[in-house]
Amino acid sequence: MHPFAYVTPNTVEEAVAVLNEHGDRARPLAGGTDLLVKARANAWELDAVVDIKNIPELMNLTIGKNGLSIGAGVPCYQVYENSEIADEYPGIVDGASIIGGIQIQSRAGLGGNLCNAAPSGDGIPALIVHSAVARIAGSGGTREVPVEEFCTGPSRTVLKPGELLISIEVPKPAPNSGAAYARFIPRNEMDIAVAGVGVYVELDDSGNNFESARIALSSVGPTPILATEAGDSLAGKPVDDKTIDTAANLARDAASPITDMRGTINQRKQLIKVLSGRVINQAVERARG
């Protein structure tokens, strides 16, 4: 491993200054579950590692009347062990609770899962369907990017050299809404998704009709996919098997997987259809309370 400086800033400004100084030869460190693996494999040659855990703004987890704010360094267990988050954002809890194993979840966070930009990232689809926004800091100030636009390719994001993810901001769910995430893996746990689906639905007051929906897919493209046509197809339609099957077929069509050692193109597309139907139904159940 290439020798590097270990820096522990106390403010966002200090962290950004170090990242700017070293450009693409510096990386922020939160849980380190991805960074240390890549550094040891020499995938990254680093001159500086910037530990962000002393920056309060990046370690805050708050939920209030305006929604949920997840600091970039907040570990997964703090998300899924929070009863308020579990009540209002069960889909996000679905994803956070299956990233690695218990030991990994005590270090890894949704911020790192997003910045790692793996197409199979289990934390990302639920953030996308909740219309979450990434807050980013750089030398020119802060900016916001919708999570569905954050990943630009495998291990690539919109972050520029010197920029730092501060937090993920999630709007408060609408009344009569529900969300869920599920994946298919060959083993019982601690495996990479062959396919995954996140869903958010809003129902009318009767609970019998969809008002709107968002569907996101993982592991079936170079980035997580917002299946816009599939989600839009539910709006204004009755909650029944025909409506849900139509949306599931459209989600399948939105997938653009590859064949690799974990699955074939046809298998993954079929998995997206099956998972979409299941997860839509689970989101509807949660929306109905």
Describe the structure.
- The structure is a single chain.
- The radius of gyration is 19 Å and the shape is globular.
- The protein has eleven helices and 14 strands.
- Helix 10 (241-254) crosses helix 11 (265-287).
- The model has no long low-confidence stretch (mean pLDDT 95).
- It has helices spanning 12-22, 35-40, 76-80, 83-88, 90-96, 102-105, 110-116, 124-129, 228-232, 241-254, 265-287, and strands at residues 5-7, 26-29, 48-51, 61-64, 67-71, 133-138, 141-146, 151-153, 156-157, 164-171, 177-184, 195-203, 210-218, 225-226.
- With 289 residues, the protein is of the alpha+beta class.
- Strands 4-5-10-6-7 form a five-stranded antiparallel β-sheet.
Strand content: 25-35%
Number of domains: 3
Q: What is the terminal-to-terminal distance?
A: 52 Å
> What is the overall shape?
globular
* Rg (C-alpha, Å): 19 Å
CATH architecture of the largest domain: 2-Layer Sandwich
- The structural class is alpha+beta
Succession of helices and strands: EHEHEEEHHHHHHEEEEEEEEEHHH
CATH top-level class of the largest domain: Alpha Beta
- Mean of pLDDT: 95
Major sheet, described briefly?
A: 5 strands, antiparallel
Taking pLDDT < 50 over at least 5 consecutive residues as the criterion, the unreliable ranges are none
Strand order of the largest sheet: 4-5-10-6-7
Portion of residues within helices? 25-40%
Number of strands: 14
Oligomer: single chain
| Total count of helical runs of at least 4 residues | 11
